[in-house]
UniProtKB/TrEMBL annotation:
UniProt family annotation: Belongs to the membrane-bound acyltransferase family.
UniProt keyword annotations, A-Z: Acyltransferase, Alginate biosynthesis, Cell membrane, Membrane, Transferase, Transmembrane, Transmembrane helix
Topology versus the membrane: Multi-pass membrane protein
A Pfam cross-reference name: MBOAT
UniProt protein name: Probable alginate O-acetylase AlgI
Recorded metabolic or biological pathway in which this protein acts: Glycan biosynthesis; alginate biosynthesis
InterPro entries on file: Ac/AlaTfrase_AlgI/DltB (IPR024194), AlgI (IPR028362), MB_O-acyltransferase (IPR051085), MBOAT_fam (IPR004299)
Bilayer-crossing regions: 6-24, 44-69, 89-107, 158-177, 198-215, 256-276, 324-346, 366-384, 391-412, 432-451
Lineage: Bacteria, Pseudomonadati, Pseudomonadota, Alphaproteobacteria, Rhodospirillales
Key word Acyltransferase present: yes
Chief place of localization: membrane
Localization of this protein: Cell membrane
Originating species: Thalassospira indica
Amino acid sequence: MLFNSYEFIFVFLPVVYVLCNYGINFFPGVAQGTSKGNEIRVKFLFASSLVFYGWWFWKYIFIILASIIINFYVSNRMNRAGSARRNKIYLILGVAFNLSLLGYFKYSYFFVENISEILGKEISFEKVILPIGISFFTFQQIAWLVDRYKGEKGEHSFWRYGLFVTFFPQLIAGPIVHHRQLIPQFEQLADKRTWQNLYLGTSIFALGLFKKVIIADSAALISSPIFDAAAVGYQPDFVQAWVATLGYTLQIYFDFSAYSDMAVGIGLIFGMRLPINFASPYKSTSIIEFWQRWHITLSAFLRDYLYIPLGGNRAGRTRQFGNILLTMALGGFWHGASWNFLLWGVMHGLFIIANHVWRLQVSLILPRWLAFGSTLLVVIVAWVPFRSADIGTTISMYQGMLGMNGASLPIWLSSTMLNDLPFLKFDGLGPINLWVVVTILPVGFIISLLMPNNIDYHRYSPEYSENFENRINIWSVLFVRFCFSISLLKLNDVSEFLYFQF
């Protein structure tokens, strides 16, 4: 089930909200504010989250349930092991199980395919369907096991642990929520049912929906035709390659920003405050700052559970740079079973290392506009392998961006009908709507670079704050309603969020 669908907005979300908050009245003898009533809500949200997850492919409910049960069992055995050695064995077994599950569904076909190419003979192996969200709930549960191994105590209720893993706002594409951030909030669900949370949550959700269906999906109309053509052998020229790359730069920004906003908004509707996962990353003045703003929870996970255990910066510069490169390479490979994602991760690792070297060795401080411009440029250039179907497509796109495939102006097709839109027609490609190009590209960059993001506008923070009430006025209400109404008109063109595939 997608957030940007009629069945979610008008059926699933309101039904779950009403039953979660008021369904307790159907249980005789259970008061609203009691611990028993709270446990019923936890179990109901757990079951609802499983329904949400199984809507796409119901059989995979058993996979996520098996993962939850095994990880919960292993963590409990750790607490009762009685020795550090046994604890370590349970940790290794638990992490191995999680990585094996992720490896089979996400990476098995990739490795078999590459082994086949190396050996020069075909190995029969059917590609398996990737369970949605497996990359996210795998990382969350590995963090849970590692923290248990380190001796962290806390909530041991199976139902709360299950809800922590499956809580539907963050289940499919993050954020990667740490158990310390979410499980304590399950203690008093009823106490968080306030009209302020409902208003703020729906407002953040509505603006996130607008970013997805109006901006991100429109930007895809610019980038996809050219990238898809390059994947089947087309050689894009200078103009085409840059138009496609800039289009994708906006598509992935507003797509991921939209999902992050909608997850926060839905969580807040139920009184849950999810961590901020996206903070205007294109405003960064260094690649290090970019990763402090882009996919914030993934950066935190890679830092805490990979980079620091590898040694971090504690063993000299050479070791530190090696750790950075390995961490970013694995972070890139986490996004998908493709050499392209590995290349993207390595590129960002090298950019971060270059950023550290500049800070350490070069006394020159760049003007802010130059630091900002150079950071944005390398981020844009690095999006090419992230979007491309394979390495060949990446090379073709880079050749086009460098002008190696020539440069030609588009053929302008003027319309004689007032109700027709003019199109850009590139030789060898289908038409691209002119108005999408001349509106989405400038407007998208103006919004992403100059305007406050959704979270900042509503003054949301993971900790409770009443400051957002200053934003509740007639103009903000009208603006949110306008954006939501426009978005509903586009829901017929349903499209998945990009991070669903990772």
